[in-house]
Amino acid sequence: MKKCCCGYINASWQQKIRRVVLLLDLISQSEQTSLTKIRQVRCQLVDQLKVLDTQLEQKSQQLQDLADYLRRRGEIESEYARSLEKLAEKFNSRIKKKEPSSHSSVAQVWLALLSQTRQDSRDHSGLSESCSNFLIQPLAHCLEYTQRLAKKSKDICTQLQDGLLKVTTELQTAWRTYYQYHSDYKCADGKLREAEKQEEKQKQNAKKLERLIEKRQRKVEEIHLKCSKARNDYLLNLAAANNSMNKYYFQDISTLIDCADVGYHFSLGRVMQAYLSRRWRAHNNLSTGLQQLQDTLSKLDQNNDRDSLLQDHHNTFSMPLRFSYQPHDGDQVSEVSAEGEMRCELETRFKQIQIRLRAVTTETEEVKSDRSQLAAHTDSMDSVSPEHVWSFILFVARRRANQQEMENLYFTKVKDYLIGSSLVSKLQAKHDLLKVAVEKGITSASGQQIPVVVESCIRFINLNGLHHEGIFRVPGSQTEVNTLRDAFEQGGDPLSEQWYDLDSVAGVLKLYFRTLENPLFPISITKSEAERAAQCKAVIASYPVPVIIVMRYLFAFLHHVSQYSDENMMQPYNLAVCFGPSLLRGTEDEDIVTLQPQINALVNSIIVQHENIFPGPSEVPGPMYEKLAWSAPADHEAPPTLHIVSSSDSKGLCPTDLVLSLPIGGHV
Q: 622 — alpha (psi -120 to 50), left (phi > 0) or beta?
């Protein structure tokens, strides 16, 4: 019996030992896992402090680097501003010494460039002052309170971490207590179950076992109560630890970082905004200055600069007085004479000069055209757009090789043109004088003082058209007008051979005066209305005799036509409207519409007062218009025609421009 009880007791203790060992293993594994988690949390908290320290170092380094950058930038800007100021002052002093013309467009561009340079200097000087003084001090203050706030934030973070570690320690303690009491509860409960099993097997010791069971029952209940309390403490600490972790990681860390960054971004932003504002101001000044420079550049004018140069040095470049004719010992002849035996010699010389003038003029025009093409080609080579700058750089090498040759060719053309045009000017002067002299000689030899076309048309209208309504106003047939013009140019008198339409004949007469290269009257007469007749008489009296004779003849005829205005509807003013544009013309820069009323009024006055304006036959001998119709002249030699000597320098018809000459093949 005793052996059975001893065997049973040994087996029971072995089972208890195994249970305790298993329980200790479970406790050890759980504790190891918990310790690992807590160790990881501790390491993470230490790393967080390191990150905050690193962040402070980065911010401090950024502020220091920015301050160093602004300080160095201020030094560079100051040095650059001084260099720009010296550059502008250097060339400005040169300009003051040379005192260039302020009217020159190149000088205006140069002054605008120097003004822009001085403005750049002021802008860079202001930027230097801002970088060196106004912007560095806020950065120093920002660095100071950033470090101070970071230290305070770190202290608070350390306190929060200590509290978090304390919570984890309490959690670990509650967990161990809970495990310990739970283990004791398991052990007491096991003993109670063993005692209950023994009670079933050993009924003879029922009282003793009953007391044992009651004792163990009380112990189990006591340990179970302690285990429940320990579990409750553990669960409470577990919830507190989890909430503390959540709050720390999701709220406290962000709050601490924000506290450490308070004012950092704002201060840095204000500094950069001030820097940016200064740069924008400089940029706007630069844009304005560049626009002004562009406007000045667009006003570059070579012709205006040339005129300004000539105006500034008027005494140097003004043309001296004309060489006046100085006769010897009372000689009264002041023009080239082609009378007598000299006429043939002058005619030969005139033809030679005419041929030479034509050839030299052609050569000069060709040289002028070549020079213009070379100048245009040179300008096109220089005008390369920015987007083609690389192709231009590649082109420069080849261009330089031909540049010297092109310059030589261009200036050769310029020299040839200037020499040729000078020769043309000299030949033209001789040509004009010889032409006047030769044609005057022919006129005096032939006795024909009125051009054939004028005399023939007036004679035809006098005989047939004084009563024709709308004479000179109604246009004639253009075909007949061209036919009559060609016939007169060939030296004939078609109106003496057959009948033509009156309006066509009147159109030929108007066409003759309209196609004169220079009009009969210079336009300057039309600009004065006071005492118009007296002024016209004074001006006309200065004309050569052949011109006065033709004008007197024409206006006497027009006055005669106006006397039949009841029938032909051509009052003096209507005739002035028809003949005014043919007899007087404005300059190229004047508005013909504005001048037309003055021209009409002048011609009207001459028609009405022609007897008071033109000298009589006693003063100027020559053909006079007769109101009585005459018969056609007898057979005679080919009539003379009218030729006009061009004068490019005159605004009106030169008094010597209207002269007579025989047609080709005519005889004196």
A: left
559-567: long-range pairs with CB below 8 Å, 24+: 559/607, 559/608, 559/610, 560/462, 560/466, 560/625, 560/627, 561/461, 561/466, 561/471, 561/472, 562/607, 564/466, 564/467, 567/466, 567/467, 567/469
Confidence of residue 286 (pLDDT cuts 50, 70, 90): confident
Residue 33: per-residue pLDDT: 72
Dihedrals phi, psi of 294, to nearest 5 degrees: -65, -40
The long-range contacts involving 526-535, CB below 8 angstroms and separated by at least 24 positions, are 526/584, 526/595, 526/598, 526/599, 526/602, 527/598, 529/598, 529/601, 532/601, 532/602, 532/605, 533/605, 533/606, 533/609, 533/612, 533/613
Pairing of strands 641-644, 658-661: antiparallel
Alpha-carbon distance of 169 to 162, in angstroms, equals 10
Average pLDDT over residues 37-66: 86
Q: Where are the beta strands (DSSP E) in 155-302?
A: none
pLDDT tens-place string over residues 199-232:
666 655 666 777 777 887 888 788 888 888 878 8
272 and 362 within one domain? no
| Lookup: tokens for 438 | 């030769």
The runs of H, that is alpha helices, within 563-650 are 565-568, 572-583, 592-608, 610-613
- Is residue 307 in a domain? no
Boundary-marking domain end, from 236, 255, 276: 276
Given 408, 424, 446, which residue is the final one in a domain?
Answer: 446
Residues paired with 146 in a beta bridge: none
Residue-number span of the structural domain to which 636 is assigned? 447-661
CA distance 652 to 505: 26
> How many domains does the chain divide into?
3
Q: Which residue has the tokens 């007899």?
A: 583
**Mapping DSSP to helix (H, G, I), strand (E, B) and coil, where does residue 615 land?**
coil
Question: Hey, what are 316's tokens?
Answer: 């140097």
Separation CA 89–CA 95 (nearest Å): 10
Q: Compute the radius of gyration of the chain from its Cα atoms.
A: 61
Q: Please tell me the number of Cα atoms within 13 Å of 369 on its side-chain side.
A: 6
Q: Is the pLDDT of residue 150 over 90?
A: no
Neighbours of 607 (CB within 10 A): 24
- The DSSP annotation for 462-508 comes to HHHTTT-TTTTTS---HHHHHHHHHHHHTT--GGGTS---HHHHHHH
290 found inside a domain: no
CA distance 207 to 217: 15
